[in-house]
Design brief:
Elements (H helix, E strand, L loop, with lengths): L2 E7 L6 H14 L4 E4 L2 E3 L2 E3 L2 E3 L1 H9 L6 H4 L2 E3 L5 H8 L5 H13 L3 E9 L10 H8 L3 E7 L3 H14 L4 E8 L7 H11 L4 E5 L7 H4 L1 H10 L1
Parallel strand pairs: 1-7, 1-8, 2-7, 3-6, 8-9, 9-10
Antiparallel strand pairs: 4-5
Helix pairs in contact: 1-2, 1-10, 7-8
């Protein structure tokens, strides 16, 4: 494996899954074997194959080669709650070992792995496990998805600072236009580029139903320098 990243966000619901799938398509457009991973997902649905999460399925679909679902999403939790609560409801203890093992299997079959976190950076995985612990265990740089909406500059700067304070490396950030009514969004985007300590990997426009394959070219240029 030559490259892998952990994708986090300024909050929940700001488009980490769309950005992660777009990143996968951008890597594949460069001829890389790229696979996605969502180590822990709450809000899963029961299917004949087992519990399945919409975001994890999107990452699996954006991957080539197509990985086994249980490697993409080792912890699939039914209730759409904070992971700690969803795991308690399911009687499951979230631990690092199954995630690390799944990541190693994905790494063995791909050139690049894109690992999507849950919620914002400080959202815990369990009572004694933060996302920073997982990133350390996997030894990954972090990509921050910034949802462009009122308050995003504060949230982005605080998140970037938290990643640094946790002793981890922020590799880049992706802007995602999630609020089409946001006032002066272009100016906010420029302010973010001035104030965040790493390069922007691209900006994803607002779409009611975003297609990561069609958006991939917007992230291709930064990848030529970073991947």
């Amino acid at each position: 494996m030559s490259s892998a990243w952990f994708v986090t966000g300024t909050d929940t619901g700001i488009g980490k899954s769309v950005a992660s799938a777009t990143l996968l398509h951008a890597l594949r457009a460069r001829g890389r074997r790229a696979v996605g991973m969502k180590p822990l997902a709450s809000g899963c649905e029961s299917t004949p194959e087992g519990w399945r999460n919409e975001d994890a399925l999107a990452l699996q679909a954006a991957s080539n080669p197509r990985p086994a679902y249980n490697d993409v999403n080792p912890f699939a939790l039914p209730n759409p709650l904070a992971p700690e609560l969803a795991a308690a409801d399911a009687g499951i203890r979230v631990t690092l070992a199954p995630i690390v093992s799944a990541f190693q299997r994905l790494s063995a079959q791909a050139d690049s792995v894109v690992v999507e976190g849950v919620g914002g950076w400080a959202a815990p995985l369990s009572a004694d496990l933060d996302q920073a612990d997982l990133v350390r265990a996997l030894d990954l740089p972090v990509v921050l998805v910034v949802g462009l909406r009122l308050g995003c500059i504060n949230h982005a700067r605080l998140t970037a600072r938290a990643i640094e304070n946790d002793g981890l490396r922020l590799a880049g950030w992706i802007a995602n236009d999630i609020d089409p009514a946001m006032a002066r969004s272009d100016e906010n985007f420029e302010l973010l580029k001035q104030r965040l300590p790493v390069a922007c990997w691209g900006r994803l426009p607002f779409r009611e139903k975003p297609d990561p394959a069609q958006l991939a070219s917007l992230l291709l240029a930064p990848l030529l320098e970073t991947a």
